[in-house]
Amino acid sequence: MDATFFTEVDDFSLNNFDEIPEGSILGGGRFTKDNISELLGCFKSGSTTQTDNLWLLSTNFSETLSTIDDESLKDIAVHWSDEGSWDKTDVNAMDLAGHLLELKYAYSNSSKRIWVLFE
């Protein structure tokens, strides 16, 4: 499943990828909903489900992501790679760290919330 991270205001709504505002995409990849749920757990954060395929991530996640140092973020990626949703996959913790670092630097200093669209 494709997961696209993007920024937008709290009360945003959309139905598909083409409706994501230009310039607001932070990154993405092939992640399941379980993968993202476990990532949020690693950050001790949650999300609000707007629709089955559109999640609004907690402000705690956004704030932590924007202030955490790179080494700590890499440690979170290693922990994330050990979570159950990655069983029977050939996940690489450094690849996950790369995704998180990309997300962090794309998000830096944004005043909007982070969303995830699953397609």
* Number of discrete helical segments: 4
Q: Which sheet architecture does the biggest sheet show?
A: 5 strands, antiparallel
Low-pLDDT segments, ≥5 res: none
Strand share of the residues?
A: 15-25%
Helix amount: 25-40%
Q: Based on the structure, what is the oligomeric state of the protein chains?
A: single chain
SSE succession: EEHEEHHHE
- Beta strands, count: 5
Task: Give the overall average pLDDT.
Answer: 92
Strand pairing plus helix content: what structural class?
Answer: alpha+beta
Q: Radius of gyration, rounded? A: 13 Å
Shape: globular
Separation of termini?
6 Å
What order do the strands of the largest sheet run in, or round the barrel if closed? 2-1-5-4-3
Topology:
Blueprint: E1 2-8, E2 25-30, H1 33-42, E3 47-51, E4 54-57, H2 59-67, H3 70-81, H4 93-107, E5 113-118
Antiparallel strand pairs: 1-2, 1-5, 3-4, 4-5
Helix pairs in contact: 1-3, 3-4
Question: How would you characterize this protein structure?
Answer:
- The chain has 119 residues and is of the alpha+beta class.
- The protein has 4 helices and 5 strands; from the N terminus they run ββαββαααβ.
- Helices cover 39% and strands 24% of the residues.
- Helix 3 crosses helix 4.
- The N and C termini lie close together (6 Å).
- The mean pLDDT is 92.
Question: Which key terms come to mind for this protein?
Answer:
119 residues; alpha+beta
What would a concise description of this structure say?
This protein has about 120 residues and is an alpha+beta fold.
